[in-house]
Design brief:
The protein is an all-alpha fold. It has one domain (2-101). It has helices at residues 2-22, 27-36, 66-75, 82-101.
């Protein structure tokens, strides 16, 4: 019961808080961009089965690989991609928390 609360809390509440605190002048746009990073879960469509509650996404799916995570971290240091990078890193943290619950 706690796992979905933590997972979706990180997916929605953390980006909202970061948008409010760090991107005040355009918090709605920042929040939408960070929420849109959930689209990296489309790489789950490449797996069989598509969803497995006992599978850790980190380094299993291509957009959740260590190489991709490295790129997401680099995005946070580039002004034009900072919000996207933060959103992607938050997404990875949410998925990593799922792995900890296993």
């Amino acid at each position: 019961m706690l796992q979905p609360i933590v997972h979706y809390g990180i997916h929605f509440l953390v980006p909202l808080g970061i948008a409010f605190i760090f991107f005040k002048s355009y918090w709605q746009k920042a929040f939408i961009i960070m929420i849109a990073t959930m689209l990296i879960d489309l790489d789950h469509l490449l797996s069989t089965p598509i969803f497995d509650a006992n599978r850790c996404s980190i380094n299993f799916h291509p957009l959740h690989s260590y190489y991709a995570i490295g790129a997401y971290i680099i995005f946070t240091f580039i002004k034009k991609t900072r919000v996207l990078g933060i959103g992607l890193c938050i997404h990875i943290i949410a998925d990593w928390c799922d792995c900890l619950f296993m």
